[in-house]
Amino acid sequence: MSKRDLKKYINELNKEQLENQIIELYDKFSEVKVYYDFVFNPREEQLIREARIKISNEYFPVRTKKAKLRRSVAQKFIKHYRTLGVDAFLIADLMLFNIEIAQAYSSEKAIKPELLYKSMLTSYEQAIAFLMDKGILDEFKNRLVAINQETISQKWSNKYEFNAILERLDY
């Protein structure tokens, strides 16, 4: 069904029928419930706080001894929050926090798989693209520079790629 057909169908419904359909969608689909829960009670800071705890638990686990180092956990939160329409500053903060927590971990323990360095570079590129898209790059300049400096001081294998990205931004 196209949007046009949907609009036509909605216009044919009376107010009560439309309310019943929305309530039915709310009951049937958890995504609709999550969306409406967010719309009526955003609690954005709390959502970001919970995401930060779960992301940091990937690197510094509370219950187990072994870190999982999964970038996908952060990516899931970021994608979900973008879909919900969480404030761009909060999403950007979470994107950079993901890289910073990985750097905190790698400063304490040597990371063997090169895959983590590569995935953090991808996260860095995505964060910069997001910041540019939202027009808030300058507000996060210091953190971007700090992340780049940390890759150099920790001697990450792809430190030159991080640096090249930053140089293209004239920072």
Structural class, from secondary structure content?
Answer: mainly alpha
Secondary-structure element pattern, one letter each: HHHHHHHHH
Beta-strand segment tally: 0
Low-confidence regions = none
User: What best-fitting shape do the alpha-carbon axes yield?
Assistant: elongated
Residue share in β-strands: under 5%
Q: What is Rg?
A: 20 Å
Please estimate the helix content.
over 70%
Counted by DSSP, the helix tally is: 9
Mean pLDDT across the residues is 94
Largest sheet: none
Termini, distance in Å? 48 Å
Question: What does this entry look like structurally?
Answer:
- The chain is mainly alpha-helical.
- Helix content is 76%, strand content 0%.
- Helix 4 packs parallel to helix 6.
- The longest helix is centred in the middle third of the chain and has 21 residues.
- The chain is elongated, with a radius of gyration of 20 Å.
- The chain starts with a helix and ends with a helix.
- The mean pLDDT is 94.
Explain the layout of strands and helices:
Elements: H1 3-12, H2 15-28, H3 30-40, H4 44-59, H5 71-84, H6 88-108, H7 114-134, H8 141-153, H9 159-168
